[in-house]
Amino acid sequence: MAELQLPNETVAGEDSGIRNFSRRAFLRGTGGLALGIYFAPLLGRRGLAEAAGDDFEPNAFLRIGSDGVVTVIAKHVEMGQGSYTGLATLIAEELDADWRRMRVEGAPANTALYKNLAFGLQGTGGSSAIANSFEQMRKAGASARAMLVAAAAEQWQVPAEQIGVRQGVVEHAASGRRAGFGELAEAAARQPLPADVRLKDPKDFRLIGQQKLPRTDSPDKTDGSALFTQDIRLPDMLVAVPAHPPRFGATPSKIEASKARAVPGVVAVVEYPGDERRFAGVAVLATNTWAAIRGRDALQVEWDESKAFRLGSAEILAQYRELAGQPGTVARNDGDAGSALEQATRRIDAEFEFPYLAHAAMEPLNCVVRLDEGHCEIWNGEQWQSGDQQLVAQLLGIPVEAVSITQLYAGGSFGRRANPHSDYVLEAVSIARAARDQGVKGPVKMVWTRDNDTRGGYYRPLFLHRASLGLDGEGRLMAWQHRLVGQSFMQGTPFESVMLKDGIDKVAVEGIDNLAYAVPNLHVELHLAQGIGVPTQWWRSVGHTHTAYATETLIDEAAVATGKDPYQYRRALLDKHPRHLGVLDLVAEKAGWSAALPPGAQGERRGRGIAVHESFGSFVAQVVEVTVKPDHSYRVDRVVCAVDCGLAINPDVIRAQMEGGIGFALSAAMHSAITLKDGMVEQSNFHDFQVIRFNEMPQVEVHIVPSAVAPTGVGEPGVPPLAPALANALFAASGKRIRRLPIGNQLQA
Amino acid sequence: MIKLNLNGKDHEFDAPGDMPLLWALRDVAGLTGTKYGCGMALCGACTVHVDGQPTHACVTPLSAVAGKQVVTIEAIAAQPAGKAVQEAWRKLDVVQCGYCQSGQIMAASALLSANRHPSDADIDTAMSGNLCRCATYVRIRAAIHEAARSLA
Predict the structure, then answer these.
(1) Omega cis (within 30) before A698
(2) What is the ipTM of this complex?
(3) CB interface of A with B, residues 643-662, below 8 Å
(4) pTM for this structure?
(5) Which residues from chain A sit within 8 angstroms of residue B84, using beta carbons?
(6) Closest Cβ opposite residue B45 in set A218, A239, A362
(7) What's the helix, strand, coil split of chain B in %, to 5?
(8) Which parts of the sequence belong to the Aldehyde oxidase/xanthine dehydrogenase a/b hammerhead domain (chain A) (predicted)?
(9) Which architecture characterizes domain B2-72 according to CATH?
């Protein structure tokens, strides 16, 4: 199968991409200029339409207009995690710009210019946006600043060293001359690029670390003007709503579309091919979304299910249990866990079940495609430019450069919009191509309805864990054996060579193969299940979603079994891990761990749980407080969170990501599961794929560990500790251990 | 033709009466601030005001709002409560992905129009129909209290 090619080596530390470059020339070269024409009537006060004119474009990452507005070209999608604000902060800091005059727009697809330095491809993931941009964006800002200063020095005939910059104003104090960025933009554009730029000493940071720097996307996300893929309207555009097969792997065999075609507004009905990695289906194209949905619902399609996947969750789990009884591939082996377990005076044996989980972003998947002869334009909340661009080019048989992508806001994603097989993007292109073959020339907006989205696959994989811990006579944790069973979503992707070695999928065991606790005999094994036809994918915090749950509830059991305080027990096993200890101590202090939890009302039982976990280079500890009611239902009252993500670029965004990560994790812990029966997904919408609602959100307090080390990410690391801390709290309150997620009503059982 | 008052102006929709208000707003009137999330009144992303009441536009047929006053996110700033809510949202940086926030702001504005001093329980009741997968709920609550203070 033709697939995306990974570069031979990682490119971190390579050429930072700061060089002279005209973005407009690039846009012209790719036919992207059309964007300006099409978007002019669509974009409000912020957007590509503003790009016209002779702006100062010192590099690929920013331009400064004659109005003094600094526009950052963001190589990372804004899907809620605050990337636009973060990238703008890094540039504005070194540019000494006026924060109120910063704007951000999405970068076009161009791997050479906009690759993620963490993996050499243009895309957003792994909580890497700030970490990989930290130096690159500051250099981009510093370089632009130097050129503005040089322009002022030339105009004013003064030495550049005497010129200062503050909040978007260039100033020569001795002569009292001042100029705004806008006034100098044209002259700055004629300056040579500085060969090298010096970055600020962190003590001089004014924006980085500021407690409350307003988000760049708040204004247009509060007045309805923010543009998501769903909002794109182009001349002659049709909306396509697909009918997907009821089981993964089925294909249409007989289509009766007369009723669909009779719906007013329906223009075309197309069948389009898929493969084992994306849906084949039938799409109804109409002049408006409602007509397309009605048309789709009126289709009568018979499906060829000869190659369809037909197992249910129960059968998959039974297979996994079978596998869990056999030796797997060793992911980590310290000492001799088998013997140590035999000598243990006390054992803890546990089996954990984790269901499939849908990402269920609020914006269902969608994608806008315009095909012309030899060219394809895409508008998307684009998380995976390099992959999508290359796979679309392969599908259409056109050069990569002939695929242009406009990166819009994504209405959530949680990983789903970065599909390693470009499933939904290729589906949209396949529909557009099939429509074009029927004479439909206009652009096509593919819209998945919520049921398409819920049943669309690429879930967090179902996992089964089986673990045994052994304690000696003095309560010391001597042995830990752990076996995981689940699907790999790295198999068959370009990442396989990097992420899947010797039968170990790194993201299946991440968070346990690097267990931080001092356990002398540790043995971790993995079984990668084969032949399970449910598509799976990364889901916010990936393998840590299940490994942190197993490890942090098991360590809690060990603490309780030995009569130790769960916080102090962890501390004692983490003495070689200062950053784990840092967040653990901070969260315990802020949560008032040493004081007793205030009692609940009559008949209520209260409990408190703690967990700590490292993911994506960041460290997070959480304390969860719960109340179990007389009817055994429960309420999550409060979550205290401590995070160490290195240097805090935007503290308020970090707090927001912890709050959001906690809420996202809470949905999965309490309610969410995708289940299959006879190969069919049983859930379809928010009534049966349940997520937390407003009244279920606890009080959240976030504390950031002060740090000067290089920044790491925050989009994902807030998620993993929540579920185990909650389960530990429920145990403290009820005496019941939860080993199957979601928790649902297990306390009542 | 279905006539109604849309964001303070008389408006005629050339659309079938069974078309949900959501799609009439988005696809016919071109007001894309109101969002599609579920199509079944489960998520609240499509919340608009019909005669001042928060309403799920995704399950409200266009014919049901004939002759009524419909207000969307695009015009909510014209109302004191709406303006206060938007300002509080910006002050506290409530948004993350932002997709559900039009609906959140419309629900919160309706609450504050009817109740200038909502308790936490009132906020729970008014906002529990609006999902946010980014879980901005902590800040939504704080911003509603903030908006209430600014309106006092």
Answers:
(1) no
(2) 0.99
(3) 652-653, 656, 659-662
(4) 0.95
(5) none
(6) A362
(7) 45, 15, 40
(8) 223-307
(9) Roll (3.10)
